[in-house]
Specification:
The complex is a heterodimer. By secondary structure, chain A is mainly α. Chain A is built from 5 helices and 2 strands, in the order ααββααα. By secondary structure, chain B is of the alpha+beta class. In chain B, a hairpin with a 4-residue loop joins β1 and β2. In chain B, α6 packs antiparallel against α7, α9 runs parallel beside α11 and α11 runs parallel beside α13. Classes of the chains: A mainly alpha, B alpha+beta. At the A-B interface, α1 and α4 of A face α1 and α2 of B.
Chain lengths: 221, 602
């Protein structure tokens, strides 16, 4: 068995280095594409949060409208009932039908009862009203406790992942530069072959080092 | 011949220069391929970046679209809540006023005290309602009259914010398309680069002279990819600033207000105030971002409203510069890709007002093709343009087509559209008639009344009644005859009985009812009888239809009759009077305009 000539050994080493750089580049690209997939997932979560937010706002709006209207009409009928009753009992000259009116207004006020949200009623100057600000704050807090309503954190996540994927993809430039330098060492008559090769190794190690650091310690897919 | 005896093959040496040239060629090619791998990795990197930005813009666009829907839903509920609150306020005010009247009418102190207590309680309720509502505060509320400006509230709280959100969404879609186009361009470059690399590698392994040709083709492809990539990479995304979007949305709200004023009451001066505000905002945007197509389109709309308002006010020369600017902006917007049907519709109308018939008709044709559901309105605008171009027969045919279309399409018969078209062409007719007399309002407007215009106005008025009341396109055969209304100012005796009916030249200020007499012949029971009242305030441009004063009923009298009727204010019992101005009464039987007359309230 004969030992290859030193020149042939260098060629073999360089060929192996070229294959290694190409494979590392491919692996890093594959990992970057996984991170990009994760960014897409975060985008989806951001969109879902925006939809939940919109749904919460519209539901709160319709609830507030219904409760507030009921409270206002309740108060109106109660006022009317009170006025009619006061006059009917105070003044014997008022016709009998006033009592019917009083009862009618009382019934109308009572009918509003089921629509009133008593947990959020407040009294101002003897009149009841619906506390819309407190209702809204609590409605929103309740929704927030069950689901995410703010897309911003997901957008930030997605942006970070995309940035990371971009960085990893950009490392391919270092790997291909290394391949370029190895090719100079392999296929040209240029002088300083050792230097070209060393530069290639430096680029390769730089790329591989940064890729390992980001993959192991920074953003996960 | 055996192998052992065969002479060893003697390699034929290539001439020295051929061998070194081959080696050099292969070395250089190998280096080129290695270098291209590096460049390819750079293209992949920028491609991934562009594609990521496109995906992020799509995500943001979707989020803004959802926010738009959420905001719209929430703000509409809030607006409904505000309206409800104001309705209650007005009802409570009515009850309070009633209680105050009863208090004054009370015959004993006890009743007076009771009604005073009721009135004071209702007043407190009103105060609470006012404290709660946003619509109940300045600048939307006019306390002395209890009136609120719901339209301005709607613009500020619903229309302008949602327009801004819609514009942001539009921006995101445009950004996404931009990055996506870039990414597509890089991907195409990468595909070509792969073929080029294959050709270059192929030229490494073949020895024929064709390898040079193959290498050259590969090289040319590489050059093309580099040029395409460089060109693509140089174009940069420039989104619109938040300030521009905010100002644009605000300007859009004011432009809408100006347009509504022109359409609702024809007060061109008031419209000019809002259009002026809109113009100032949009000009600020244009100073910063002159290439903003939405701003160009909005500016066209503002100029168009101002130009139209001045044209209709009989100051066509003052409006011409506005209309020219509108036409220029519309062309610019179309060149920038704003090729929606509404842009061509505006272009058609603006060119019509400028007297450019051919351009107007061409643009309206495009608008009709792009907006087939707007055939009624655009069709009628085109019919008017055809009349002014002297094509009376075509105009009549198109008018009939448009009315038939309106019968089948709910959108076509939109009552406000019909009223707007009628009042505008009535004004064209009036301006044309003035131009033919010494009282010509100013140059630049129509030179005269084109043949067929008065007939078209009458036809459209009949169509409006037929569509709204009879659900038909045209009136049927009508034998009824009605004399023109004779306006009278009755004299009453002490019992309130009319004793004399002298003719009324004009009714005095503060009149609640205008009396008129008509004679009817050939009437049939159950026939539809519609009265429409139009009013023109002093200095007002249009005859505006007064919906409150109109009537639609069925005849229930004899075939021949002489009747006295009134045009009365909405609530004469509450002392409401007819406002000053010129009035016109039109009477339709089965949709046919059979009588008309004018009166005046000083």
């Amino acid at each position: 068995m004969s030992t290859p000539e030193p020149k042939e050994t260098l060629k073999t080493v360089l060929s192996i280095l070229i294959a290694l750089a190409a494979t590392t580049g491919a692996l890093v690209s594959w990992y970057a594409s996984r991170i990009n997939g994760g960014a897409g997932g975060a985008d989806g979560k951001a969109i879902a949060a925006a939809m939940d937010d919109a749904q919460t706002e519209i539901s709160a709006g319709s609830d507030i409208f219904a409760f507030q209207t009921a409270a206002r009409q309740f108060q109106l009928h109660r006022d009317n009932a009170k006025a009619v009753r006061d006059e009917a009992f105070r003044n014997p000259a008022v016709p009998d039908r006033w009592l019917d009116e009083w009862q009618g207004e009382s019934m109308r006020a009572k009918a509003r009862g089921p629509l009133l949200n008593l947990d959020f009623m407040k009294t101002e100057d003897g009149r009841v009203s619906f506390d819309r600000d407190r209702y809204y704050a609590q409605f929103r807090a309740q929704a927030e406790s069950e689901k995410a309503l703010d897309p911003a954190p997901f957008i930030a996540q997605s942006e970070a992942k995309r940035k990371e994927a971009g960085l990893l993809i950009s490392l391919n430039a270092l790997f291909t530069a290394a391949i370029f330098f190895f090719t100079i060492g392999l296929k040209t008559d240029l002088r300083f072959k050792g230097l070209w090769t060393a530069a290639g190794i430096l680029f390769y190690l730089g790329g591989a080092g940064v890729a390992s650091w980001r993959i192991l310690f920074m953003v996960q897919p | 011949m055996s192998a052992a005896s065969a002479p060893a093959p003697v390699p034929i040496p290539l001439p020295h220069h051929e061998g070194s040239s081959e080696r050099r060629f292969k070395n250089r090619l190998t280096l080129l391929i290695a270098g291209l791998t590096f460049i390819t990795s750079l293209i992949v990197f920028i491609n991934v970046r562009a594609s990521s930005r496109s995906a992020a813009a799509v995500r943001d666009g979707r989020i803004v679209a959802i926010r738009y829907l959420g905001f719209l839903g929430r703000s509409l509920w809030s607006a409904a809540e505000e309206k409800d609150l104001m309705n209650t306020y007005q009802e409570t005010t009515g009850l309070m006023l009633q209680a105050q009247v009863y208090e004054r009418m009370a015959k004993n102190g006890g009743d007076a005290a009771f009604f005073k207590m009721v009135s004071s309680s209702l007043d407190k309720s009103r105060a609470l309602l006012l404290a709660r509502g946003e619509l109940a505060k300045p600048p939307y509320f006019n306390a002395p009259y209890g009136a609120f400006d719901y339209f301005q509230y709607f613009l500020d709280r619903v229309y302008i914010p949602t327009t801004a959100l819609k514009e942001r969404e539009e921006q995101k879609w445009t950004e996404s398309s931009f990055w996506s186009a870039k990414s597509d361009s890089y991907t195409a470059g990468l595909a070509v680069m792969a073929v080029a690399l294959f050709l270059l590698t192929l030229s490494l392994v073949i020895h024929a002279h064709i390898r040079v040709i193959i290498a050259c083709v590969g090289g040319a492809m590489v050059a093309a990819v580099l040029a395409l990539t460089g060109f693509t990479a140089l174009s940069q995304w420039r989104g619109r600033t938040e300030d521009s979007i905010r100002l644009l949305a605000q300007a859009s709200g004011n432009a809408l207000y100006a347009q509504m004023i022109v359409n609702y009451n024809g007060d061109t001066d008031a419209a000019a105030v809002f259009a002026g505000r809109a113009k100032s905002d949009v000009n600020k945007v244009m100073r910063e971002e002159g290439d903003y197509p939405a701003a160009v389109l909005l500016r066209a709309r503002i100029h168009s409203v101002l130009g139209e308002a001045r044209y209709l006010a009989g100051k066509a020369d003052n409006g011409r510069a506005e209309l020219e600017q509108a036409a220029a902006d519309l062309d610019r917007a179309i060149r920038a890709g704003k090729t929606e049907g509404f842009t061509y519709w505006s272009k058609g109308y603006v060119n019509f007002l400028l007297g450019r018939r051919a351009e107007s008709l061409a643009a309206l044709d495009k608008a009709l093709a792009l907006l087939p559901k707007e055939k009624f309105t655009i069709g009628l605008v085109k019919a008017v343009a055809l009349l002014y171009a002297g094509k009376v027969k075509e105009a009549r045919a198109l008018t009939e087509e448009a009315v038939e279309f309106a019968l089948k399409t709910p959108l076509g018969g939109d009552a406000m559209n019909v009223r707007t078209i009628i009042k505008n062409i009535e004004r064209f007719n009036e301006l044309g008639a003035l131009a033919e007399t010494a009282a010509r309002p100013g140059p630049g407007g129509p030179a005269g009344v084109p043949a067929g215009l008065p007939e078209m106005i009458a036809r459209l008025k009949e169509a409006a009644v037929c569509l709204a009341v009879l659900n038909k396109a045209r009136p049927g055969e009508v034998k009824a005859e009605i004399t023109p209304p004779h306006f009278v100012d009755p004299v009453f005796d002490a019992q309130g009985t009319i004793v004399e009916t002298p003719a009324a030249a004009a009714y005095k200020n503060g009149t609640a009812r205008a009396y008129f007499q008509i004679e009817l012949k050939g009437m049939e029971k159950g026939q539809s009888l519609v009265r429409k009242i139009y009013r023109r305030a002093p200095g007002q441009v249009f005859w505006m239809e007064q919906l409150w004063l109109g009537r639609a009923e069925h005849w229930d009298g004899p075939a021949e009759a002489r009747i006295q009727a009134t045009v009365e204010s909405r609530i004469p019992e509450a002392g409401e009077t007819l406002t000053s101005g010129d009035y016109r009464l039109e009477i339709f039987v089965e949709g046919k305009l059979v009588a008309a007359g004018n009166f005046k309230v000083l």
